[in-house]
Amino acid sequence: MELGADAIWLSPIYPSPNADFGYDVADYNGVDPVYGTLDDFDALVGATHEMGLRLLLDLVPCHTSIEHPWFRERPDLYFLADRPLNNWVAAFGGPAWSRDEVSGRWYLHSFFPEQPDLNWRNPEVPARMGDVIRGWLDRGADGFRLDAIDRLMKDPELRDDPPATVAPLLPLHPEHGVLEHTRSRNAPDIGEAVASLREAAGDAFLVGEVYLPAAGLAQYLPSLDAAFAFELLHAGFEPARMRAAIEAMHATGKAAWVLSNHDFSRLPNRVGRANDRAAAMLLLTLPGPAFIFQGDEIGMADGPGHNPPLDRHGRDAFRHPMQWDPSPNGGFSEATPWLPSVDPAQRNVADQTADRGSLLWLYRDLIALRRTLGEGIAFRDSPPGTLVYERGEHIVAINLGDEDRPGPEHRGIELATSAGAAADPALLPAHSGWIGRLT
Ligand code: TEU
To answer: Measured from the CA of 92, which atom of ligand 1 is nearest?
Structure first.
């Protein structure tokens, strides 16, 4: 709450055997006992609302856990066959068809074999997912992050994916990337599946995780409030690509800005420690909702992960727990977390709260200031390594490069990434940024 956020997004909290850390759901209506009970959830909703925050859940509609009772009781809700029906490759590598040891039949899975895909062309699937949505809204949830919805509808005839002829637009697992996913994802009528989620959700907030560039989002957007801007996340911190990604996503009118999440290396590892403040300024001066991954606001970097790995897709290092205080477990929990704390003595919320010049305070100041920025975004051409854009009566100047550059004219700097960044009003020092007034 001190951060100034409007809402909290919880990763999946449902009972799960954790083959994919909650993204393999065994019961859509429950809370996994490691987190608590439904009563605890109700208390959390109450406390969240009392603080003026809203609560978003992570809905995983594309697949269940192989341990979900539906998989045994209602195989018609899935894709089962006597043999693999096509050449599709799973997102984390390996074939997308596995043999079920119990029935001896083959089933389709877009992700791990423990995550059989639901068949959204069976009308009972959207009907059941609608019940799930209404159930959580009745309990007080305010909306959902919709997981992997570009996989909801596939080619009705399940035809082969053709070989890829160009590099993927967003990074993919190398085995997955050898095919172009024209049949296994993003079917021409996928908008109908997303519309059914919207119908159940009423006017609750829906943000879509659609792993496509802005140009591919048209079918999804009518039913969503926002979609994550993955093109920006993967723009490599190269200003020209970033500007193009921002402009393309902004043009959709439904951008949810995001620079890091639980699937990718943490910010300091991708943008460089030197740029963590500039990255925060960028994220929080773009028009529309922005998502901050836990720990970014105190500058947490990738940790050591776990040995042996917990996540077979190699994402443990990005998922170490939040560090609230300098104690050995960072004040995260009295239980032993799956992954240890990384460096709570070096960075934690308590210490950074006490330090007015900390990264955490920059996040707070940016969140407060962003509410005063005008509509829209208008880029100006600017020196190499920099991004300069107007937000109504404000101008934002960010230098991601190693060289100091001249900054644009302004009528006073309102917020800078550090005291040094604003020392000379005409200068935009390397790895810094500021927000100035235009009037
Ligand atoms: O990720 C789904 C997804 O398609 C991508 O965003 C993924 O990062 C991409 O394929 C690159 O490899 C979501 C969740 O965020 C992830 O944690 C889950 O493992 C996955 O769905 C399966 O539910």
So the answer is: 12
